[in-house]
């Protein structure tokens, strides 16, 4: 199945399986990758793990998982197949590995969307892990120190509201947003296209993603397809709730400009 279609199929309906959806994102960059290999590796990592100490020892000592501080914006850090093979990534993808290995081992963990740095937490506790730093244990005070160092917000109030549990859909959206920023900076229109199509499959508001996808298609000389995409959004149901008349007119003008390339 086409990676975008597979991802959209997974995220339609109830909360999707994190491991399968994260591997579906990674397949966007390499459609020949078989999700079964990634799932099997997560199964292997969980073998013999019985508690949180054992999980940390398995991932960050025995297997050598580590944060890729040297090349943080390498797109492979956001692609779960590559993270599992290279044993390095960014906080959110390393968190996916820890959460999914923990789930297989019967150890409940949840993602925490602290501004500036993604963390893992034992539910209903103040026990946190910084998976980007070897699974380092943190309490709330330690989280505050990390928050201030990663954001530079020395005077901002810090409390539980900055340590929210994030849903699977929010994790997936954040992973896609990371890739969106990386591929946009590289002007990699081919990869940015599948990222935007997947991102559109999650809940969103407004025309921003559609307009960006239109530009990406136009950059690939797919002007008619881009124009039809924008026109479909502008004329579609519900678009008025997320955009004023001015924005709708701007989108229609952009569609006309794309069609002008066909003359």
Which secondary structure elements does this structure contain, and how are they paired or packed?
Blueprint: H1 3-11, H2 18-27, H3 35-46, H4 52-62, E1 66-67, H5 80-86, E2 88-89, H6 91-105, E3 110-112, E4 119-121, E5 128-130, E6 136-138, H7 140-151, H8 168-185, H9 189-200, H10 208-219, H11 223-235, H12 245-260
Parallel strand pairs: 1-2
Antiparallel strand pairs: 3-4, 4-5, 5-6
Helix pairs in contact: 1-2, 1-9, 2-8, 3-6, 4-6, 8-9, 9-10, 10-11, 11-12
The helix/strand class is alpha+beta
Taken in chain order, the helices and strands follow as HHHHEHEHEEEEHHHHHH
Tell the overall outline.
Answer: globular
Distance between the termini: 35 Å
Largest sheet: 4 strands, antiparallel
Assess the beta-strand content as a share of residues: 5-15%
Low-confidence stretches: none
Characterization of this structure:
- With 263 residues, the chain is of the alpha+beta class.
- Helices cover 56% and strands 6% of the residues.
- It has twelve helices and six strands.
- β4 and β5 (128-130) form a beta hairpin.
- α1 runs antiparallel to α2, α8 runs antiparallel to α9 and α9 (189-200) packs antiparallel against α10.
- 39% of the residues are buried.
What distinguishing features does this structure have?
alpha+beta, four-stranded antiparallel β-sheet, two-stranded parallel sheet, 6 strands, 56% helix, 6% strand
């Amino acid at each position: 199945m086409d990676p975008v279609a597979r991802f959209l199929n997974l995220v339609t309906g109830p909360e999707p399986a994190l491991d399968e959806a994260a591997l579906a994102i990674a397949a966007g960059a390499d459609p020949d990758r078989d999700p079964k290999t990634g799932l099997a590796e997560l199964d292997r990592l969980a073998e013999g793990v019985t508690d949180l100490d054992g999980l940390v020892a398995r991932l960050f000592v025995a297997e050598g998982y580590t944060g890729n501080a040297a090349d943080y914006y390498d797109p492979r850090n956001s692609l779960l197949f590559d993270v599992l093979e290279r044993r390095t990534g960014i906080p959110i993808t390393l968190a996916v590995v820890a959460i999914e290995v923990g789930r297989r081992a019967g150890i409940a963990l949840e993602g925490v969307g602290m501004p500036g740095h993604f963390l893992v937490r034992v539910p209903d506790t103040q026990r946190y892990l910084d998976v980007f730093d070897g699974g380092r244990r943190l309490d709330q005070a330690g989280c505050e120190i990390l928050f201030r160092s990663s954001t530079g917000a020395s005077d901002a109030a810090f409390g539980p509201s900055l340590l929210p549990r994030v849903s699977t859909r929010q994790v997936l959206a954040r992973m896609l947003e990371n890739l969106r920023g990386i591929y946009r900076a590289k002007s990699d229109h081919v990869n940015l296209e599948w990222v935007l199509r997947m991102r559109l499959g999650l809940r969103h508001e407004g025309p921003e993603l559609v307009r960006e996808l239109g530009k990406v298609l136009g950059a690939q000389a797919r002007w008619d397809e881009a124009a039809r995409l924008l026109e479909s959004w502008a004329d579609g149901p519900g678009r008025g709730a997320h955009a004023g008349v001015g924005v709708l007119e701007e989108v229609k003008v952009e569609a006309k400009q794309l069609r002008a390339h066909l003359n």
